[in-house]
Design brief:
binds zinc ion; 11 helices; single chain; 278 residues
């Protein structure tokens, strides 16, 4: 029974991503479809959407949600306690270097990938995003699993300096890892081409689940329990969510039920409760 619900929770994650990306894509299409965006404008837009969503969502989680004790208690996903760690402080140099990296990678991605127009067909876009997240999850799984092999681990140890977790740990990685993860994330668009409205939507939603996955909370997309277990035990849970870990048998079983924004989990606890009463 648990297995079915955990599987449904993974499907729920894919659907949430595909639906949210489609909504954002429609919004970007509405704002941009009349404009002729040349290459530099596209780079600036893609970079701005990525960076502003990263900082805005990270600050929202760390400085607004986590400052509210009642909300934090409700949303906390962490069960196994680890020693609290001071998190990396933001420095002007660090932020500037990070943004330079982001502009360079945005330019390279848009320069190399062929541009396509996918318009605003909702079903076409939904199907594209659904395929995209399942493929991105598999690509990330493979790359991340490889980064845990002895001969590549060095590249990935910087990210694992934190056993405790905070949203911004999502961005804490070595330059080589940044390059590898960026390539795995955008690999499908080198093959299928990029539509700037899709790319912007993907980048904002990608930041949302990545920050949430490291936040030690379960808010909407992804219960942080999954990736917390990866940071505290260093083995297993290599994917974005559990689907590919289940397929390849590397899943650490979840230790905590998800928050109220996870319908599958709500249904599961209702069924378990009524079974207990009955
Ligand atoms: Zn890892
Ligand atoms: Zn991590």
């Amino acid at each position: 029974m648990h297995k079915i619900f955990n599987f449904l929770l993974e499907i729920e994650f894919y659907l949430k991503i595909a639906i949210s990306c489609t909504i954002f894509q429609q919004l970007f299409y509405y704002l941009l479809h009349d404009l002729e965006l040349n290459f530099p404008m596209q780079v600036i837009l893609y970079w701005l959407v990525g960076s502003s969503s990263f900082y805005a969502l990270g600050i929202l989680i760390e400085k607004v949600i986590k400052k509210n004790n009642i909300l934090t208690e409700k949303l906390t996903a962490r069960v196994s306690k680890v020693k609290p760690q001071p998190f990396p402080a933001f420095t002007v140099k660090g932020i500037i270097l990070g943004e330079i990296k982001a502009v360079i990678s945005a330019s390279i991605v848009l320069f190399l990938a062929p541009e396509v127009q996918r318009g605003n067909d909702i079903f076409l876009n939904f199907g594209w995003f659904l395929m995209r997240i399942i493929a991105a999850d598999l690509c990330f799984y493979i790359a991340h699993w490889l980064l845990h092999r002895r001969w590549l681990q060095k590249i990935h140890l910087k990210h694992h300096e934190f056993r405790d977790s905070s949203s911004f740990v999502a961005g804490h990685k070595s330059l080589i890892e940044y390059v590898i993860v960026t390539i795995t994330d955008v690999l499908p668009i080198f093959i299928f081409g990029y539509d700037i409205t899709q790319l912007c939507a993907w980048s904002a939603i990608g930041n949302a689940y990545n920050l949430e996955g490291h936040s030690s909370l379960s808010i909407f997309f992804i219960p942080s329990d999954f990736h917390d277990l990866h940071h505290s035990s260093f083995t297993g849970n290599y994917g974005i969510h559990g689907f590919w870990d289940r397929v390849f048998n590397t899943l650490n079983p979840p230790t905590k039920k998800q928050g109220i924004m996870f319908p599958v989990s709500l249904v599961e606890s209702k069924i378990i409760d009524s079974a207990r009463i009955g």
